[in-house]
Amino acid sequence: MVETVQTPVAPHADGEAPVATPRWRLVVRRFLRHRLATISLVVFVLLVLLAFVGGELWHYRYDVYTPDNSQPPSAEHPFGTDATGYDLLAQVLRGTQRSIEIALFVAAVSGVFGSVWGAVAGLHGGKVDTLMMRVADLVLIFPAIAVAAVLANNVGASSQGWLLIGLVLAALTWPYVARLVRGLVLSLREREFIAAARTFGAGSWRIIFRHVLPNAMGTIIVAVTIIVAVAILAETALSFIGFGVRPPDTSLGLLVSQNQTAVSTRPWLFYFPGLFIVVIALSINFIGDGLRDAFDNTRSRSRR
């Protein structure tokens, strides 16, 4: 069972007993007090809508030439065009869409797999815990970008290249989630509600999915948020060095890589996709900070 968080509430004037505040309301209230995190959430949602909806509504496509070559930003082309006539706004929207898809896919896969792995290890303990954590440690010692570049080298150009790149990054990031969840489960498994579940004959998988993971959800959400930011930057790095998304598709990292030589002559080609990368990474990091504070019951804070 998921434990209910209670906070001191002043007695009602009529003498009625105070009512416990549900945990999710406390989390939302604390998150909204973190103004920078709230603003960042709004910015990130707007970027997602702009990428996935705005790209479909924009009258230029990312893979279709226009007759306007190397045009600076204007009313017709707000982000300008490149030397071959591609509208940069259309390309940035497509790149943002692809980068966010990869990052969310990595976070989902590594979050689910890492959470289950860490929960199983922490709940069983002993030799099972030791073996499973040594496997996680083995993955952690690999240089992530180098390994990802080798594994993604032959998949980036395929039609589902972005999905395979996401799988590669998820395979290298799940141990971070696993270690966090395992540490929390080591303390949770000694709690009364876990002992009660075992007394009533609940199996390990039922305890994990019904009791352990719901109580670890705060830690998991914060970890997954961090993974999103890491995946955005990792995909950018892979595409920048030529091992990520390949043409005719595009991503923010690929746009920065393709246009790095145009910084002095056509700076809009480099700075607009770079700006989107910075805004996405910063907004996700601030959202993670807000979620960490919101799920932290040991500190009371007020955001002004």
Question: What would your notes on this structure say?
Answer:
By secondary structure, the protein is mostly helical. 66% of the residues lie in helices and 0% in strands. The chain contains 11 helices and no strands. The chain is elongated.
Sheet having the most strands: none
Secondary structure: number of strands: 0
Radius of gyration: 23 Å
**Element pattern in H and E:** HHHHHHHHHHH
The helix content, as a percent range, equals 55-70%
Low-pLDDT segments: 1-10, 300-304
Mean pLDDT: 81
Number of helices: 11
What is the CA–CA distance across the termini?
35 Å
Portion of residues in beta strands equals under 5%
Overall geometric form: elongated
What class do helices, strands and sheet pairing give?
Answer: mainly alpha
Which keywords apply here?
304 residues; disordered C terminus; mainly alpha; elongated; 66% helix; 0% strand; disordered N terminus
Q: Summary?
A:
With 304 residues, the protein is mainly α. Helices cover 66% and strands 0% of the residues.
In terms of topology, how is this protein built?
Blueprint: H1 23-33, H2 35-57, H3 88-124, H4 126-140, H5 144-152, H6 161-188, H7 192-199, H8 204-215, H9 217-240, H10 252-258, H11 268-295
Helix pairs in contact: 1-11, 2-3, 2-11, 3-4, 3-6, 3-8, 3-9, 3-10, 3-11, 4-6, 5-6, 6-9, 7-8, 9-10, 9-11, 10-11
